[in-house]
Amino acid sequence: MIKVKHLSKKFDDYQALDDISLNIQKGSIYGLVGPNGAGKTTLIKHMTGVYIQDEGRVVINGSNVYENNGVKELIAYVPDDLYFFPQYTTKKMAELYKRIFKTWNQDRYEKLKEVFKIDENKKINKLSKGMKKQVAFWLSISYMPQVMILDEPVDGIDPVMRKKVWNLLVQDVAERKMTVLVSSHNLRELEDVCDTVGIMHEGKLLIEKEIDDLKSDVYKIQVAFKNGEISKDIFSDTKILHKENRGSIFLYILKGNRKETIDKIEKKGPAILDVLPLTLEEIFIYEMEGVGYEIKNIIL
Ligand SMILES: Nc1ncnc2c1ncn2[C@@H]1O[C@H](COP(=O)(O)OP(=O)(O)OP(=O)(O)O)[C@@H](O)[C@H]1O
């Protein structure tokens, strides 16, 4: 559905995107994560046809996006930095959308009044930051887009409304195979909704994986041996992302063949061996640590 092929972009001498390729399947939710300045918004602005790339292509439904109104009509884009016409109310925006988008669904817009509970006659610019985000999402999902591209969609929205926004998104993906790309720093919430996650760093895509694979690939173990030693050959086929010890108990974050490594440890007869699940947030932190983006222990 969405293909980004070898996309590169420089702002003057700064390489903001460096040979990015990614694939998003129809009817799936792709989570784009990365530290501040990684290039997420820049990538999104190429995917929505705002920026023109230096090299590469963005293809949606088989066609290039840039300067292609036919393709852009399929996409709803909720940017991080929202803009609304100064005098417009939500109702007036809905009337405008109705004229612009053939797929506008008035019935849905009306039904979602119950969900968003925002006065549609109030000027949008007079609403709070979180309410503006809600309005942007409400209007976008009411024209039944085939693709939704969302940059920090729940930033500033309260927890109850955030849950409702995610639920609406998941519902449209399940019911009408909408395709979603969402950038967020809220990894706990992304983890619940995404099928695939892409981790960006310094303009590059470090990792792109289905979330289930990502979680089975990176794992945490707690291990202890009676003699207190761990032979190095246990980890010969695996990458140690992180290691620490509390007394004789060692905690490892490992990446690689889980079964082989666990088998090797078990053969050595450990006193303790626990394999613990990792959250997406932990995976992100350890992967970033692996590329030198460390979380230093700061003592104040
Ligand atoms: N229009 C621009 N002109 C020059 N540099 C830019 C421009 N837009 C972005 N950049 C630079 O490109 C890099 C990537 O920025 P971008 O906004 O894409 O990051 P991001 O991953 O979305 O970050 P955040 O999580 O903070 O929103 C940054 O170093 C930024 O300063």
From TrEMBL:
Keywords: ATP-binding, Nucleotide-binding, Transport. PROSITE patterns: ABC_TRANSPORTER_2. InterPro entries: AAA+_ATPase (IPR003593), ABC_transporter-like_ATP-bd (IPR003439), ABC_Transporter_VariousFunc (IPR051782), P-loop_NTPase (IPR027417). The keyword Transferase does not apply. The keyword NAD does not apply. GO terms for molecular function: ATP binding; ATP hydrolysis activity. Residues 2-227 form the ABC transporter domain. PANTHER family: ABC TRANSPORTER ATP-BINDING PROTEIN ALBC-RELATED (PTHR42939). This is ABC transporter ATP-binding protein. It comes from Vallitalea longa.
